């Protein structure tokens, strides 16, 4: 089937078979569409001529980054404070691909190198039995097709009043289900009915969940979640005898011990033309236009994937898995180019649901490792997703047949006003004031994971701050409820519509290079001093201070957040200290607004697979091998895992090793616990989660003192009578004197 089957995502399909183009400007530029096609052609040639494999399905094809020090040498970035860059060496461009034998289900990995103007196989490896590469967009779409055609599914739908053409399915990873072999490529299909062409299908959840074999193209099994009824004492009681999965040989409906439940049939639409059919719909007519105008153009420059904005410089790349990958982030500090981060990206997330009755516990999607944020990204619309003067970057990923799926406008780059940057007013008579407004650079992407949208905003500020904001929106994942059914693990957001409690837990990978590659992490707690009130050392009882701890061994690299002490972590370079504070230069990680405890039990299915979510912060030493450094906190191959794999952050910290003054990796866990509200239905207003990185003893003074205070000539009174238009304090200009 065509990869363009996902509306609003794929723009074009690159079919060229023999291209050898490698017109790159930066060693971290992602594979172009031409390169993906050429790499996949090279792999197919090798498979056809040198293996017994009859047919393959590509799942991933992406850049294998060069060694870190090689990249920094090529860019002229020093490894130590004030040092000289290493001498550049030749860089061989490499790609990595994962693919399946569609006959046997075996998985393979290949590394392909561009040498002598052609791509050649460097390594070709059959992966261990049961290893499952990333689930593709095509497989998610195929899941729906498989389910819609299945006679048993059609009959079960008809039994509750749904026609075959009204059946729709969201393909999900199976999560965790030991009843199925790991060697079978399995998905679960969450079913809904769609009553008209663009009807909001999530308003009509169905009461059974098929399990499908993606490669065989068939339904393997059908599960029926049990429901709740009120006991004589008014306590919710599950219809099934246990939350344990029933054996596959048992009749699943009998095991659930309940009758079939028709889906809710009331429409809850969100498209304007469908909303207009509702007599109660009354769109607002008092919203006046608000335009973002930059009459002289933008203040940033682009050279391919490399961006310069005021004093910031960085590389921006599309990643099929991470979505946005920011690399080689530096700041020009009055002529000294100071490195801050080598790479910054989202590398994993897990969404565990709270309902314990089977099969709902299988719903804990690893949206990065199982599907890929890049492959699920939207093509962005000018004037809707992004406002103002916009620059877009494209992205490309591989389709099953080796062609390249191109998303034309996948990464959005623009500037926006960010309120006041700094201000002070001398309140005395005749005093003056100064206000400087903040402008920030925004690098963003929107990803759709079935029902849900994630908006990723990376913000860069004029005072050296960096912020990652996650905005969550879209439609709640819902399940049908019986009439008047109690709902102990969710919210009944509409009649017969149950939105389960759940969490969104993200892992942010920081590859720091604060003034060089050798960094340390300091853990700081704010604590009252031990002297009691009335004592000689703390007579008023107000004293508090900070307690610093340098993390030294990898075995102590798994850290908890402590709200009682407002714990914070700082990435420092011990080789350089601030001229006045005497402290090591560094960047502080701000997680207070985003730190979230993982609610599932630590020995449960979700926490066992997503060990990264058990701690707020992980610090490990980076170790590079021929396939790059340590990357994925839940392992490279995530679908259908049943434990914390050896190549995961939970296992890396168990090995002893020095993490003081080393080339480090820091994994930050942030998130939110979502207790759905009726106001989240039918489409959820955005919810915000924010993570910050702030310089601490890094700059001599406030680095934004050189930002001019400019009074906007386009601003004016809201009303013609001029009310509320006082010009500054004591008649002085509010922006610049």
Describe the structure.
Homodimer. This is Amine oxidase. The active site is at residues 367, 452. The structure is a single chain. The protein has 737 residues and is mainly β. It has three domains: 12-126, Nuclear Transport Factor 2, Chain: A (Roll), CATH 3.10.450.40; 137-276, Nuclear Transport Factor 2, Chain: A (Roll); 343-373 and 412-696, Distorted Sandwich (Beta-galactosidase, Chain A, domain 5), CATH 2.70.98. The protein is 10% helix and 37% strand. It is built from nine helices and 34 strands. Strand 24 (490-494) and strand 25 form a beta hairpin. The chain is globular, with a radius of gyration of 28 Å. Mean pLDDT is 94; it is low at 1-10 and 728-732.
CATH T-level topology of the largest domain: Beta-galactosidase, Chain A, domain 5
Please work out how many helical segments DSSP would assign.
9
Overall, the morphology is: globular
Number of strands: 34
- SS-derived structural category: mainly beta
Name of the top-level CATH class of the largest domain: Mainly Beta
The N- to C-terminal Cα distance equals 65 Å
Report on the biggest sheet. 21 strands, antiparallel
The CATH superfamily name of the largest domain is Copper amine oxidase, catalytic domain
% residues in beta strands: 35-45%
Number of domains: 3
Provide the CATH architecture of the largest domain: Distorted Sandwich
Unreliable stretches, pLDDT < 50, 5 or more residues?
Answer: 1-10, 728-732
- Rg over C-alpha atoms, rounded to the nearest angstrom: 28 Å
| Mean of all residue-level pLDDT scores | 94
Approximate helicity band: under 10%
């Amino acid at each position: 089937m065509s990869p363009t089957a996902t509306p609003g995502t794929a723009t074009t399909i690159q079919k060229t078979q023999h291209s050898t183009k490698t017109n790159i400007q930066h060693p971290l530029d992602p594979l172009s569409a031409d390169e993906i096609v050429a790499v996949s052609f090279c792999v197919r040639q090798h498979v056809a001529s040198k293996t017994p494999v009859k047919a393959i399905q590509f799942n991933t094809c992406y850049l294998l980054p060069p060694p870190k020090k090689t990249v920094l040498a090529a860019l002229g970035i020093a490894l130590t404070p004030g040092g000289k860059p290493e001498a550049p060496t030749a860089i061989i461009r490499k790609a990595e691909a994962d693919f399946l034998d569609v006959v046997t289900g075996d998985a393979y990995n290949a590394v392909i190198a561009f040498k002598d103007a052609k791509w050649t196989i460097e390594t070709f490896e059959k992966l261990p039995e049961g290893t499952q590469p990333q689930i593709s967009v095509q497989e998610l779409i195929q899941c729906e097709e498989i389910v819609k055609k299945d006679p048993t599914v059609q009959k079960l739908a008809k039994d509750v009043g749904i026609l075959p053409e009204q059946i729709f399915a969201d393909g999900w990873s199976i999560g965790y289900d030991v009843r199925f072999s790991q060697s079978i490529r399995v998905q679960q299909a969450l079913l809904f009915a769609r009553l008209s062409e663009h009807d909001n299908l999530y308003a009509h959840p169905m009461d059974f969940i098929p399990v499908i074999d993606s490669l065989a193209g068939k339904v393997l099994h059908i599960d029926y979640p049990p429901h709740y009824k009120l006991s004589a004492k008014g306590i919710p009681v599950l219809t099934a005898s246990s939350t344990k999965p029933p054996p596959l040989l048992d009749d699943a409906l009998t095991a659930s011990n309940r009758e079939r439940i028709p889906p809710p049939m009331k429409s809850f639409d969100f498209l304007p033309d469908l909303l207009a059919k509702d007599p109660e719909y009354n769109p607002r007519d008092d919203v006046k236009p608000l335009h973002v105008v930059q009459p002289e153009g933008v203040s940033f420059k682009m050279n391919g994937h490399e961006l310069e904005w005021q004093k910031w410089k960085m590389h921006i790349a599309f990643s099929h898995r991470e979505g946005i990958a920011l690399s080689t982030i530096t700041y020009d500090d009055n002529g000294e180019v100071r490195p801050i981060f080598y790479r910054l990206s989202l590398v994993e997330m897990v969404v565990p649901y709270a309902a314990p009755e089977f099969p709902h516990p299988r719903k804990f999607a690893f949206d990065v490792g199982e599907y890929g944020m890049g492959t699920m990204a939207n093509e962005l619309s000018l004037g809707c997703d992004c406002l103002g003067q916009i620059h877009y970057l494209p992205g490309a990923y591989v389709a099953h047949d080796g062609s390249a799926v191109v998303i034309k406008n996948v990464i959005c780059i623009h500037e926006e006003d960010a309120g006041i940057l700094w201000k002070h007013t001398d309140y005395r008579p005749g005093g003056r004031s100064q206000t400087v407004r903040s402008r920030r650079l925004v690098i963003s992407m929107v990803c759709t994971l079935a029902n849900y949208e994630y908006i990723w905003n990376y913000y860069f500020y004029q005072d050296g701050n960096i912020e990652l904001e996650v905005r969550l929106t879209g439609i709640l994942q819902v399940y049908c409820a019986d009439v008047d059914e109690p709902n102990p693990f969710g919210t009944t957001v509409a009649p017969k519509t149950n939105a389960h409690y759940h969490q969104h837990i993200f892992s942010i990978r920081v590859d720091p290079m604060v003034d060089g590659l050798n960094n340390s992490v300091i853990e700081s707690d704010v604590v009252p001093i031990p002297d009691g009130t009335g004592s000689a050392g703390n007579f008023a009882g107000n004293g508090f201070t900070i307690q610093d701890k340098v993390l030294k061994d990898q075995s102590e690299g798994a850290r908890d957040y402590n709200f009682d002490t407002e714990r914070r972590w700082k990435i420092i370079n011990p080789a350089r200290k601030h001229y006045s504070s005497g402290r090591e230069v560094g960047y502080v990680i701000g997680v207070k607004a985003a730190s979230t405890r993982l609610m599932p039990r630590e020995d449960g299915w979700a926490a066992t697979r997503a060990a990264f979510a058990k701690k707020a912060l992980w610090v490990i030493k980076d170790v590079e091998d021929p396939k790059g450094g340590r990357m994925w906190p839940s392992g490279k191959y995530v679908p259908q895992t049943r434990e914390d794999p050896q190549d995961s952050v939970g296992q890396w910290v168990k090995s002893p090793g020095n993490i003081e003054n080393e080339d480090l990796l820091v994994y930050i866990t942030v998130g939110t616990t979502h207790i759905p509200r009726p106001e989240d239905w039918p489409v959820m207003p955005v919810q915000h989660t924010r993570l910050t990185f702030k310089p601490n003893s890094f700059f001599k003074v406030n680095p934004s003192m050189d930002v001019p205070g400019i009074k906007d000539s386009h601003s004016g009174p809201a009303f013609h009578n001029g009310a509320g238009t006082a010009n500054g304090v004591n008649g002085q200009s509010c922006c610049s004197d």
